Amino acid sequence: MTNSEVFHIRTEEAPSLAAPASTSGAIGWMRQNLFSSVGNTILTIIGILIAYSLFAPLIQFALIDAVWTGENRDACLPQEAGEHVGACWAYVKAYLPQFIYGRYPTEEIWRVNIVYFLFAALLIPLAIPKVPFKAINAILFLGVFPFVSLVLLTGGDFDIGFWGWGFVVVLALIGVVIAAVQMFAGGQDFAGVKPVLLAFVGTAVVIGAIFTLASIDFGLPVVETAVWGGLLMTLVIAVTGIVASLPLGIVLALGRRSQMPIVRLLSVIFIEFWRGVPLITVLFMSSVVLPLFLPEGVTFDKLLRVLIGVTLFSAAYMAEVVRGGLQAIPKGQYEGAMALGLRFWPMMYLIILPQALKLVIPGIVNTFIGLFKDTTLVLIVGMFDLLGQIQSSFSDPTWSTPTQGHTGYLFAAIVYWCFCFGMSRYSIFIENKLNTGHKR
User: Fold this and answer.
1) Domain ranges of the chain
2) DSSP 67
3) 332, 410, 413, 398: which is closest to 94 by C-alpha?
């Protein structure tokens, strides 16, 4: 034999070996995040003890000792001495129709169910990025659905009156006046003022079309908003405020950064006024004080007044969130857009606003969540949202038990948490999808 070395050349790729169990999966995650050091281990143990002390009694009350069936309060009372009775879910089951529909007439509940179905059928595909026909879906959700819901829930056949049509005419005239001032005093051509003119006149035309259709008698029984309540009232106020406050907030944010002194001053006054007044004061003003300033014989539905107040209040906060995103955009983006020959509105629509809104998604969703929870304040002006409907049920002696209040508030907390958590998780999903940075 010779002392020559023998080499082996591999002709196939070696099989991949699984990562050690201690560094992957649930065990690896816990070792890295919960028990990576002595300090983290101590904090983890303390956190587990605190969580156990908080959630163990809650689980005991809500699930283990809970009463799930029964016809009246007797089912939720201790049957023996020393017995512990938990949540009375039988009471929630009995009152669930009122929690969902309020005092809406039972024979007309099918109209509310159609609105719920249309809301989910249009919102879900709109929220899923890969579903096609987004433009048609958005038009149906933002343009057709509000009118259909209004007719179904109220019955239609509105008497718009002189003041309603006068508002449409005044809105169109405001757009014409602003465009004329910009053309003759600001030196802009028609192409420069066309977006403003279209915004005001187009809005007036849309509102006029809605007024015309709403005045048609569709043969449905009229249901006054005074009997609305429960989850229906909560969703009407929250969805209307969310959908209407975002575009209004964007306009106010652009107005606050405008180079025109009058537009900037009016935007600042509007934003600072509404941000300086508590929402509860806004609701009192819209419900109690506003009718005192209206001409004799002119009245507005209380729900409509609340919707306007909530929308304007939320729009002021939304404007500041959007303004933060606009200020975060580098100056080079504006200069580049102007170098391409883009005017103000195309520049904002195509380049600036998409970037600014992407940056402030957490702030926008935070405002939406706050608005959704603030709907509970309408109880103060005599409107029964979900929480108000739950509180009104406490006066029923049929289900009066020591655990009735705890169960009702727990049910309300679960419902609000589901909606708010859903919005939060969806915002995180959108952030990750739109993220263009490089993460390690």
Assistant:
1) 30-61, 65-104+226-440
2) B
3) 398
